[in-house]
Write a structure and sequence with these properties.
two-stranded antiparallel sheet
């Protein structure tokens, strides 16, 4: 979504000092944002979940003594 085409439809609310405090956007734009947002969040969560699983597995291997010298790991790649 290119935000430039919506800039003239976005309105700002200000406080007594004239500082922007909130944003009003048309419902259609908001619904579009919501449709696209969960996919990005799910992908990010999947990556985090996999990273945590990998770290747990690594800790289990370390506890079992299944470790490798860094030189071996670097050379195997």
């Amino acid at each position: 979504m290119n935000i430039d085409i919506f800039k003239d439809k976005i309105r700002y609310l200000t406080n007594e000092e004239g500082k922007k405090t909130d944003v009003l956007i048309p419902l259609a734009i908001w619904e579009n944002i919501l449709q696209n947002l969960p996919v990005e969040i799910e992908e990010e969560n999947d990556h985090k979940t996999q990273l945590i699983a990998d770290l747990k597995q690594s800790l289990l291997h370390a506890r079992e003594g299944k470790t490798y010298p860094l030189e071996k790991l670097w050379n195997d790649n």
